Amino acid sequence: RSGREHWELQLMLADSDGANWVHRHFPEFQEPETGLIENYGGWPCVRVEVQLLYKARSLRERDRLDFDVCLPLLDEGRKLWLASSLERLYGTEHEWLEALR
Asked: Among 11, 43, 50, 77, which residue carries the largest CB count within 10 Å?
């Protein structure tokens, strides 16, 4: 973080039933575990669009900034996945949906 002497690392834990990851705030939302992690620069990380789905819940200023920065990195399939996931969890009025279309 800006102004910090040392770097920080945030670890995100994903709930799983052994075959699917389960959204921690919406247990009815489950996706195959095989699609949760992707390598970015050799580092295994939660897919960008999945992390954005988690950030979509609170919509803090930093979450909006992350969305704006990440949106151009998403291909059409990832945008479609995020848009349909947002609709499933938050309905058709979520503020990110227009930008995803």
From this structure: 50
d(Cα 97, Cα 94) in Å, to the nearest integer?
6
| Strand-pair partners of 32 | 20
CB 82 within 8 Å of CB 52: yes
Render pLDDT for 57-97 as a digit per residue (tens, 0 to 9).
Answer: 989 999 999 999 999 999 999 999 999 999 999 999 999 99
Predicted structure pTM score? 0.81
DSSP letters of 9-42?
A: ------EE-SSEEE-SS-TT-EEEGGGTEEEETT
For 80-84, which contacts have Cβ atoms below 8 Å and span 24 or more sequence positions?
81/49, 82/49, 82/52, 82/53
Q: How many CB atoms lie within 10 A of CB 47?
A: 18
CB 22 within 8 A of CB 13: no
